Amino acid sequence: MTPIHGALAACASDPARTRGRLHPVTPAPTRNAFQRDRDRIVHSSAFRRLVYKTQVFLNHEGDLFRTRLTHSLEVAQLARDIARALGLHEDLVEAVALAHDLGHTPFGHAGQDALNDCMRAHGGFEHNLQSLRVVDVLERRYPEHDGINLTFETREGILKHCSPANARRIEAREPGGVARRFIEGTQPSLEAQLANLADEIAYNAHDIDDGVRSGLLTLAQLAEVPLFAGHQAAALHDHPHLAKPAQGRRLLYESIRRMLSAQVYDVIATTRAAIDAAAPQDADAARHMGPLVRFGADMRAQSTALKRFLFARLYRHPQVMETTARGQQVVRELFAIYLDAADGLPPEFAGSADRPRAVADYIAGMTDRFALREHERLTGQRLFA
Ligand code: MG
């Protein structure tokens, strides 16, 4: 049976039984291992840079749009609330949620695609793998090792996807480590599964908000989306005055609020039933079962329909595509310049024996605005007004 609200479930990850860190440390006197991970993530340079990285809209397009930082905070909020209701470990879901996008390039997914193209002959570029690389290697703030030396469980959650080739590469240097599950076909911890689902719930909701705010989506278009339309109808039924045009934003917020709550309660109920039925004895047993943290079938279908709508109407909107195409040009041209230049890379990257990887690491770490400034400095072109 799932425990009463507030207690830890038997299948929750236990920081006292962590599989440990790449570099052993003495336990902290007042913090558990996952709290310590969360703290290390919040204090990292990569975390601070998330504030100037694109989620969908470029940072300078408006002060109210989500950035990777506010997105990550929303993911952490949703994941923690659900974790508490299910008896999963809140500190671990928070750590994974706050770190999940650390490896994102400037200019969102478009930036990643451009960098992946640039790196095609040099091992490719993938943001989940890069997030792991940030916490394992690229943060350099400890005297005796690179990286911020997080626990296995947080690193496992950060590595959400991994190609078979990359999994074999990681497995070779870290046998039985965070890539093993991609070879064996097992699941990550329930906390990692939850952070992943909370990511989807968060962006589905906030991309509607940002899409409408930008003028690229309209409430009329959103009537095509059953998940949104149903809650909007219910909001109008309960609050008829929201039908007035001047109340459009309140109607949007109330509809999104109801949509978020419905998804959260659906995940809690479905997952609680799945955990009760599968009855994993401990966190490790849950890794050897199918995914237990999930939507019910109907909510899964509705969430997928919403994702499809956002893809077609927002992410592929000509105005978004036009902006991201310019972001991709910045990434491609910076890559070509740094790859050829004898210098031009900061010292911590310049000495690398693997120049393409060092260039990719440097560019991936850039904020949108730093990349634009650097591009303008090196090419004399200003791509954004
Ligand atoms: Mg995300």
Description of the molecule:
By secondary structure, this protein is mostly helical. 61% of the residues lie in helices and 0% in strands. It is built from 19 helices and no strands. α3 crosses α13 (248-278) and α5 (108-118) packs parallel to α16 (318-340). The longest helix is centred in the last third of the chain and has 31 residues, at 248-278. The N and C termini lie far apart (58 Å). The model has no long low-confidence stretch (mean pLDDT 94). Magnesium ion binds next to loops.
List low-confidence stretches.
Answer: none
What is the CATH class name? Mainly Alpha
* Total domain count: 1
Q: How many extended strands?
A: 0
Mean pLDDT: 94
Beta-strand fraction estimate:
under 5%
Helix-strand sequence: HHHHHHHHHHHHHHHHHHH
Q: Terminal Cα separation, in Å?
A: 58 Å
CATH topology: Hypothetical protein af1432
Major β-sheet annotation: none
Q: What is the helix fraction of residues, given as a range?
A: 55-70%
Features:
385 residues, mainly alpha, binds magnesium ion
Question: Brief overview, please?
Answer:
The chain has 385 residues and is mostly helical.
Furnish the topology, listing elements before pairings.
Blueprint: H1 33-42, H2 45-49, H3 68-86, H4 90-99, H5 108-118, H6 127-138, H7 152-158, H8 164-173, H9 180-184, H10 190-214, H11 219-222, H12 226-238, H13 248-278, H14 283-287, H15 297-315, H16 318-340, H17 347-350, H18 355-365, H19 368-379
Helix pairs in contact: 1-4, 3-4, 3-10, 3-13, 4-7, 4-10, 5-16, 7-10, 10-13, 10-15, 12-13, 16-18, 16-19
